[in-house]
Amino acid sequence: MVQRGKVWKFGDDVNTDIIISGKYKFSITDLDQLSKHAMEAARLEFAAKVQKGDFVVGGRNFGCGSSREQAPLVLKHLGVAAVIAKTFARIFYRNAINIGLPAVECEQADKISDGDVLEVDLSKGVVRNMSSGESYVVKPLPPQLQVILDEGGLVCYVKKHGKLPW
Amino acid sequence: MSKTISEKIFSRASGKDAHSGDIVIANVDGAMMHDGMAKLVMDAFHEMGGKRLWDPSKVAAVIDHVAPSANEAISVVQKNLREFAFKHGANFFEVGSGVCHQIMIESGLVFPGGLVVGSDSHTCTYGAIGAFATGIGSTEIAAVFLSGKLWFKVPETLKIDVEGKLPPMVFPKDIILKIVGTVKADGANYKAIEYCGSTVREMDVEGRLTLSNMAIEMGAKTGLVEPDRKTLAYLRSLGHNPQTGYKSDWDAEYSGNLVLDVSDLEPQVACPDMVDNVKPVPEVEGKDVNQVFIGSCTNGRLSDLRVAAKIMRGKKVKRGVRVIVTPASRMVYMQALKEGLIDVFLDVGCAVCNPGCGPCAGGHQGILASGEVCVSTSNRNFKARMGSTESQIFLVSPATAAATAIEGELTDPRRLLKEA
Q: Which of A19, A152, B277, B336 is the most core-located residue (most Cβ within 10 A)?
């Protein structure tokens, strides 16, 4: 499936407090309310303006810091189609896949600019930048994560198959 | 073939001959969740059809992140967490018990050679006693609660040798800040770290816990220290009968080796807004400060409180500065009381709070206003972590924090030593 959307570009080391600050995580459990503060510390307008199908693009070490699963959850809840970054912090990466948010490693993520329009075909591992005309290759998911993502996350996987994938 | 500590632990836990790069399904020896993540864990557990825990004796549920509760939303989470723990017979630690990581060590739920997961990124702390311990997300914790198993990629190991005798007023926190500043925030991504060298061997277990705690700030899965006589003596002093655990083979393969001589190390500070933005304290001295926090899973232990009390004893906290002291656990608090440390803190004008996470994660007990500066002994200085997006956090040792509390500005603790 090809997904088309606009890019929200962030830099290196986007940490979990930027994605969703602890001060909100500990006072708001409703995802609708919590998501209003997504990325607030980096871009105040993000939560209000992000559109369903948009892409969040980062540099190195996206999602570093806390193990909070609320970080990928708020992005998914706002309709972000995928997070694309040069590299991911380990816990965020696993968390994203486990809740069904594609986390896509792309060596050339720094060539993508804010506001670019991308067409992403995860099954083929291709990101096309419609604004610059460039194409980027993405690193495929390890197979044991791909099966989880294919089902929309770990909970969905278990609901469908009646057991854990391991 | 020779192996690292990590490879030995994963070989035991998976029943396979595990080497770095292998994907293994491993049996977990312990799993911890706290109030900060409990809602998502319990929701996932129930959605996946969870009826019972795979082994309640190996599960810990801790209320520490916002303890006592600061608002109704977290009160509901904590109520449900209590009921979940009681219903399923898990080990439960009530408000006031302390920071989850300190409790896991003190309670004996972690042991050398064990494989432990937690719903918190600083679960890596337990590497200090030779356990492979790592933070995972809420859904995976729920999956472990169901099955006792999880998949892991056996990590490569970055060996960090620390050599030399620490100068006065320089502490394990300064060492780990220096290391994070050198390795950088993603320098150990997906890897295990093994802290080695004469300085680590000489260091008490509390200091090692400080080193291991911040392994995640370099992206590492865990931060191991080879268990030795000190480790076993420490665990016995807590009333446990520990296993000896594993040592890396002399010819084990490491992905890299960093050697750090600390004999001339100065006190270090991680400046906003990244933990790897580390400078010697003298370069940042004089920064006006509004709040000082002494506590957390990094530096809320007895040795930390002793150093802070020694520096502050007989002085007064600078007017305009609030100092929050939060012992890491009830055990630490009670011992600090016996030693008169709490008297010192109260006498100089600190607010001594109940054991728990304190203001570290922005939940309560010290939220920063716009424009405010906090000097903290905790482990993260990310923007907006402790409050306003326009506040700043500087990470330091308990000695630097204590000196700063007295002077009201970021202060090199060696300065107060000279006066003493």
A: A19
